[in-house]
């Protein structure tokens, strides 16, 4: 968009001599046009950067495989209020944001989130773009944990990791889904993330994933 000086220059190249009144009208018109253009472009500059997305993105950048990661726990427990942000994060140019959003969506594994993931994967293939995926699998077969224990962590250990005694639990009440972090070993350790969902008065296994070793 030309500035006011360029606009006046255009008048003189056409052979016009602009008097004070004409110059004033042209200056007012140019100023109004500039303001309109700025207002019109503002929504595009702010697109995708809502307050909730900015906050969610900060948490995704803090998600680590280290034990008792607070950002992971918060995103897991509040996923239903951040679903749109997590799906939007699939398109984020920062790989860490993109990968961690995939992890959270797969951990909770509700149909809408998984459908959004498959749609995004399909789009990347269609566009011929390279993309990264977390090394994890959502179990397709139905498998329930066996036994009756008041403590969910103890139930998970008895069924999947009997050699461990150290667990921490995050719980998404709306999704009735829990993330259990299991730490095995003392000197040389490894961490597992187990996700289970309450169905039919039982705990269904969603995923059982090795996330780190030291």
Descriptive account of the structure:
The protein has 214 residues and is α+β, with helices and mostly antiparallel strands. Helix content is 48%, strand content 17%. It is built from eight helices and four strands. A four-stranded antiparallel beta sheet has the order 1-2-3-4. A hairpin with a 4-residue loop joins strand 1 and strand 2. Helix 3 packs across helix 4 (70-77). The longest helix has 27 residues, at 20-46. The protein is globular and about 45 Å long. Mean pLDDT is 80; it is low at 1-18 and 21-48.
Which residues form runs of ≥5 with pLDDT under 50? 1-18, 21-48
Structure annotation, total helices? 8
In angstroms, what is the radius of gyration?
27 Å
Distance between the termini: 58 Å
């Amino acid at each position: 968009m030309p500035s006011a000086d360029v606009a006046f220059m255009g008048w003189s190249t056409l052979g016009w001599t602009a008097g004070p009144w004409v110059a004033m009208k042209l200056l007012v018109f140019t100023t109004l046009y500039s303001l309109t253009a700025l207002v019109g472009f503002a929504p595009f500059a702010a697109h995708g950067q809502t307050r909730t997305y900015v906050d969610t993105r900060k948490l995704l950048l803090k998600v680590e495989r280290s034990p008792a990661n607070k950002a992971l726990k918060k995103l897991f427990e509040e996923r239903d209020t951040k679903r749109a942000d997590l799906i939007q994060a699939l398109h984020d140019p920062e790989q860490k944001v993109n990968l961690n959003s995939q992890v959270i969506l797969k951990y909770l594994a509700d149909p809408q989130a998984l459908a959004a993931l498959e749609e995004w994967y399909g789009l990347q293939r269609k566009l011929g773009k390279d993309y990264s995926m977390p090394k994890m699998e959502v179990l397709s077969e139905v498998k329930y944990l066996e036994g009756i224990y008041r403590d969910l962590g103890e139930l998970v250990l008895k069924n999947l990791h009997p050699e461990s005694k150290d667990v921490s639990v995050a719980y998404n009440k709306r999704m009735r889904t829990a993330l259990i972090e299991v730490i095995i070993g003392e000197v040389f350790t490894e961490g597992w993330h187990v996700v289970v969902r309450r169905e039919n008065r039982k705990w269904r296994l969603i995923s059982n994933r090795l996330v780190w070793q030291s």
